Amino acid sequence: MSGVWAGALPAAKTWTWDSVWTTIADWPWDIPLKLLIIAVSAVIAQVLITRAIRRAVKSMTARARTTNASDLRSLDDTTELSNVMLTQRTEQRAQAMGALLRSAAIVTIWVIAIMTMLTTVGINIGPLLASAGVLGVIIGFGAQQLVADYLAGISMIFEDQLGVGDVVFVGEVTGTVEDVALRYTRIRDFDGTVWYIRNGQMTFVANQSKGWTLARVDFPVPYDADLDQVRDVINAAGKVMGANRAYDGILLDAPVFAGVEVVRGDAIIIRIHAKTAPEKQFSATRAIREQMKIALDTAGIQVPVQTVRFADSPNQDPNAAGPRA
Fold first, then answer.
1. Ramachandran area for residue 25 (φ above 0: left; ψ -120 to 50: alpha; else beta)
2. Secondary structure E strands in 111-161
3. 215 CB contacts (<8 Å, ≥6 apart)?
4. Residues in Cβ contact with 241 at an 8 Å cutoff, skipping those fewer than 6 apart
5. What CA–CA distances, in Å, run from 51 to 54, 110, 112, 194?
6. 49 occurs within a structural domain
7. Crossing angle of helices 281-298/227-243, nearest 10°?
8. Contact of 189 with 179, CB cutoff 8 Å
9. Pair 135, 235 in one domain
10. SS3 assignment, position 265
């Protein structure tokens, strides 16, 4: 029995240093070497392209005009003011576009590298590409909304429709943008609620933070008040606010008397407006309202007290019932 098995089993191969070196020499080392060269080339291309994109972003931001907030008040031309404020957003927009280009470049480089590696080891990528094309069509039909979200996100970034920190109104949501991704945009409203909105669902974007915004304040004065005096008091107080360095980061020009907005039987509603820095219209409105109240009180122009007349009680003498403040 032992002889039978001994004849059936192959003889064990004896390894020597010569046989080891012969096996190593006969190994097809050109394929691993090619794979290594492809991988190293992909890494070098990734480093070079990302560095070039980073330099391009720095070049774009270096060309942006830097203007002090106090210097913006001397710009009387609305078009020039808008151009200066929009130019200051160049850095934010360049960073967003740079991040998008870096991601696209990295994905493209490694897809090409992997396909080249598969071809090097002898795998025919033709059927794989055909299968990927068919799979892409199937996924495209099943994920049309997802594709629309990504395309809308790319368009929003390139067109600078909104950015992180902007105050925007999209549909039923008004708040501050916290994140702009390719698929969705995260917005926190003024109540603290966080909204995740798919980019493909945004039919419009009302951005209150691009360039400059306008703060409007409606203020009541007595019906018989001298409007010329009111105008002089408002404009004088506005010039004081415009020259105050404490409002450098808020006001872009001095608040001015805009005109009469509403005429009532007991009061006249006047409007005051001023150009403000992006996202500062709410704090500017509160500051203008406070300073104008002080200025009007100092000038002896009192805000009229609105009277409220309650319904008469059936058991109350109509002649005895009067207005209650």
1. alpha
2. none
3. 255, 273, 274, 275, 276, 281, 284, 285, 288
4. 247, 251, 254, 255, 287, 288, 291
5. 5, 17, 20, 35
6. yes
7. 130
8. no
9. no
10. coil
Q: How far is CA 84 from the centre of its chain?
A: 19
Look up the pTM and report it. 0.51
Break the chain down into helix, strand, coil percent, rounded to 5: 55, 15, 30
Q: What is the CATH number of the domain that holds 201?
A: 2.30.30.60
Q: Which residues contact 82 (CB under 8 A, 6 or more apart)?
A: 211, 212
Q: Give the 3-state secondary structure of residue 308.
A: strand
Distances (CA, A) of 116 to 107, 161, 182: 14, 39, 29
Q: Do 250 and 219 belong to one domain?
A: yes
CA distances in angstroms from 25 to 19, 20, 22, 29, 120, listed in the order given: 10, 9, 5, 8, 20
Domain that holds residue 232: 213-298
- In DSSP terms, 180 is beta-bridged to 185
Tell whether 196 and 267 lie within a shared domain: no
Q: Examine the domain organization and report whether 178 and 226 are in the same domain.
A: no
Of 155, 178, 207, the one marking the end of a domain is 207
- Tens place of pLDDT per residue across the chain (325 aa): 444 444 444 444 566 666 655 665 565 667 778 888 889 999 999 999 989 988 888 877 676 555 554 455 555 555 555 555 555 566 666 776 777 788 788 888 998 898 888 888 777 777 766 766 666 666 666 567 777 888 888 888 778 788 777 888 888 888 888 888 778 889 998 888 999 998 888 888 888 777 677 888 998 999 888 999 999 999 999 999 988 888 887 888 889 999 999 898 888 999 998 888 777 788 888 999 999 999 999 999 887 765 544 444 444 444 444 444 3
Specify whether the CB–CB gap between 291 and 242 falls below 8 A. Answer: no
Within-domain flag for 274: yes
